[in-house]
């Protein structure tokens, strides 16, 4: 029995892999276009990176507008959301954002903390 794969078999396997990647990419684009996604985590060589999406038609724009209003009024905001993991699972995330100001009261930035609360939420539901 020959343990080597033929060039045709290698090509078929490569095509199958590329089709799966294309399907995942199309699913991601579909979620972005419908506003189901407001950020993406991209795995890089050094560490995962979070990219926030700001599409005009995204449902999440309402979410960001309520958050901005709270930061302006109270200088803090806290909320919960559900994020999709790389393998298609879901995790519950609590986010806390605090507006920072310098000594003169001028806005100087924000501090944000994201905390996985999946286990906490699962036990209370």
Q: Runs with pLDDT <50, length 5+?
A: 56-60
* Structural shape: elongated
| Biggest β-sheet strands, sense, barrel | 3 strands, antiparallel
- Strand residues, percent: 25-35%
Describe the structure.
This protein has 125 residues and is α+β, with helices and mostly antiparallel strands. It has a domain at 60-124: Beta-Lactamase. It has helices at residues 7-34, 60-74, 118-124, and strands at 39-43, 48-52, 76-84, 90-101, 107-116. The strands form two sheets. Strands 3-4-5 form a three-stranded antiparallel beta sheet. A hairpin with a 5-residue loop joins strand 3 (76-84) and strand 4.
Please tag this protein with its features.
3-stranded antiparallel sheet; 125 residues; Beta-Lactamase; 3 helices; two-stranded antiparallel sheet; alpha+beta
Topology:
Blueprint: H1 7-34, E1 39-43, E2 48-52, H2 60-74, E3 76-84, E4 90-101, E5 107-116, H3 118-124
Antiparallel strand pairs: 1-2, 3-4, 4-5
Summary of the model, kept short:
This protein has 125 residues and is an alpha+beta fold.
């Amino acid at each position: 029995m020959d343990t080597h794969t033929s060039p045709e078999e290698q090509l078929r396997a490569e095509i199958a892999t590329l089709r799966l990647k294309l399907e995942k990419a199309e699913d991601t684009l579909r979620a972005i276009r419908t506003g189901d996604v407001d950020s993406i985590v991209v795995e890089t060589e050094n560490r995962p990176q979070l990219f926030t999406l700001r599409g005009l038609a995204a449902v999440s724009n309402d979410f960001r507008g309520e958050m901005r209003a709270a930061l302006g009024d109270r200088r803090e905001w806290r909320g919960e959301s559900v994020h999709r993991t790389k393998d298609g699972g879901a995790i519950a995330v609590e986010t806390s954002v605090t507006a920072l100001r310098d000594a003169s009261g001028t806005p100087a930035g924000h501090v944000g903390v994201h905390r996985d609360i999946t286990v906490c939420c699962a036990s209370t539901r």
